[in-house]
Task: inverse folding
């Protein structure tokens, strides 16, 4: 197996464990085992240890989200919102309510100030998603202020609702939130026919 394949498998495995168990409940040993890699390989590819691997896992999840969101936002903010919701619906349902967002999981856990690379990666991910949504909302008629407020509302609402779905073991909150957010998007843009 190529070195980059092994490294990528470790990053994807770490993202999966983070979305299921969070940062503090996951050890480097468990991350290595989950990805099928020897523990020594983990430290070879990630000399910064768990913090570096977790940050890479957050960036991996961010890249997937950005790719999907950017593609659908080309059709407008309602289409972007729908893919964002559908992506998290699939994660929650496919995991039988055992997994959520690795970006959120990392961002809500206590991390030492000197080793907070995962938290910084999470903040950058949330910023990227918000900027993508803001730009699309503005391009479809929202004012700058309304676009920024609505984009922030979308990211915060969906992330929070994913946590609610896991706790309630029901997708109902996500469906209700999606409907409400779509109404907000339509109200601040000229997407009545979107």
Result:
């Amino acid at each position: 197996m190529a070195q980059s394949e092994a490294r990528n498998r470790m990053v994807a495995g770490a993202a999966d464990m983070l979305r299921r168990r969070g940062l503090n409940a996951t050890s480097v040993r468990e991350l290595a085992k989950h990805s099928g890699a020897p523990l020594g390989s983990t430290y070879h590819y990630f000399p910064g240890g768990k913090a570096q691997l977790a940050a890479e896992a957050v960036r991996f999840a961010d890249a997937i989200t950005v790719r999907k969101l950017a593609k659908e936002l080309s059709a407008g903010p309602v289409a972007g919102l729908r893919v964002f919701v559908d992506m998290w619906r699939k994660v929650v349902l496919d995991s039988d309510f055992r997994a959520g967002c690795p970006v959120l999981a990392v961002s809500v856990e206590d991390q030492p100030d000197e080793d907070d690379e995962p938290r910084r990666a999470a903040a950058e991910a949330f910023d990227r998603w918000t900027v993508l949504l803001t730009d699309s909302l503005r391009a479809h008629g929202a004012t700058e202020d309304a676009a920024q407020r609505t984009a922030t509302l979308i990211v915060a609402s969906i992330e929070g609702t994913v946590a609610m779905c896991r706790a309630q073991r029901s997708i109902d909150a996500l469906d209700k939130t999606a409907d409400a957010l779509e109404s907000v998007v339509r109200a601040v843009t000229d997407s009545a026919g979107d």
Q: What stands out?
A: The chain has nine helices and no strands. The longest helix spans residues 49-73.
